[in-house]
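Hi R.,

As promised on Friday, here is the backbone we talked about, encoded as structure tokens. Could you run it through your design pipeline when you get a chance and send me back a sequence?
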């Protein structure tokens, strides 16, 4: 049996033996740094001048196409990456798809099959299919002119043109599902728009505002779109869940009439539900129904 005291003694001996080696390595590193530093002073001066000149730019110059430095590009990239999950959930079809697939898994009664990673990945690729026309319009109308430094491509114009396709997609889904009340719910808690010159209250529109119209603010459209997607997802999930529920009731009534009270009905109905789902090509039908539930106009 190894004694703890011998372990402590061994650690102390190793510390004494290794201490000179560690000090020697540190000393060599310090000397190497001191030797290389003078040789790099000339190169670092030019870099320091460039960095100081970049940092001395005004905010308007930093946000112009010519003034965006590599540091700002990295910062913007990290910001977009950190906000990507929220953007994915708030402005795309991901919410509806992943909720319906989750309800389908509950209806089958397979617990963790398919795994959550598989469901999320399938929902992600379906979202890419649905959102490709919208994202293409965002790139062609906003991102491409700004990165190519086209005439009149300012940051404000890029934001305005980039939001239009997303606004149209979200508005089409809200109108198609008949969930306009969700938009009015959030508009009631926002300050009213200023009156026109004639004293009339402007009319809210989803997109393409004309004279006397005001587009629905994004702070009302985004949460209303998420509520609309949740409602639609649960309605589709109910339609998927109902046949499996009927099958569970049939199996439960049969097992009860046969006196098998101690046998869980879900244990017997699970193979039948999986067999029925596979024979009807259920995955194809569910994915097709989800894709057809979106308005591509």
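Update: got your reply. Pasting your designed sequence below so it's all in one thread:
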């Amino acid at each position: 049996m190894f004694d703890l005291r011998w372990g402590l003694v061994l650690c102390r001996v190793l510390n004494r033996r290794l201490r000179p080696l560690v000090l020697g390595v540190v000393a060599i590193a310090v000397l190497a740094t001191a030797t290389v530093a003078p040789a790099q002073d000339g190169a670092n001066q030019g870099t320091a001048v460039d960095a100081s000149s970049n940092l001395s730019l005004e905010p308007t110059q930093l946000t112009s196409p010519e003034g965006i430095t590599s540091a700002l590009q990295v910062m913007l990239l990290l910001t977009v990456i950190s906000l990507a999950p929220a953007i994915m959930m708030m402005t795309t079809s991901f919410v509806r798809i992943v909720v319906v697939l989750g309800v389908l898994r509950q209806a089958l009664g397979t617990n963790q099959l398919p795994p959550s990673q598989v469901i999320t990945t399938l929902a992600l690729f379906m979202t890419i299919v649905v959102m490709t026309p919208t994202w293409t319009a965002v790139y062609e109308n906003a991102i491409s002119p700004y990165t190519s430094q086209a005439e009149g491509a300012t940051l404000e114009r890029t934001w305005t043109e980039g939001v239009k396709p997303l606004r149209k997609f979200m508005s089409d889904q809200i109108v198609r599902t008949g969930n306009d009340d969700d938009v009015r719910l959030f508009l009631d808690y926002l300050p009213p728009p200023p009156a026109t010159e004639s004293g009339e209250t402007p009319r809210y529109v989803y997109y393409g505002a004309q004279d006397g119209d005001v587009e629905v603010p994004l702070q009302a459209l985004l949460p209303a779109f998420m509520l609309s997607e949740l409602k639609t997802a649960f309605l589709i999930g109910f339609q998927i869940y109902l046949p499996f529920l009927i099958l569970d009731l049939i199996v439960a009534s049969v097992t009860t009439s046969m006196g098998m009270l101690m046998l869980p009905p879900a244990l017997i109905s699970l193979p039948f539900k999986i067999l029925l789902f596979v024979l009807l090509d259920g995955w194809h039908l569910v994915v097709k129904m989800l894709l057809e539930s979106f308005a591509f106009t």
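One thing I noticed while checking it: Strands lie at 203-205, 213-215.

Thanks again,
M.
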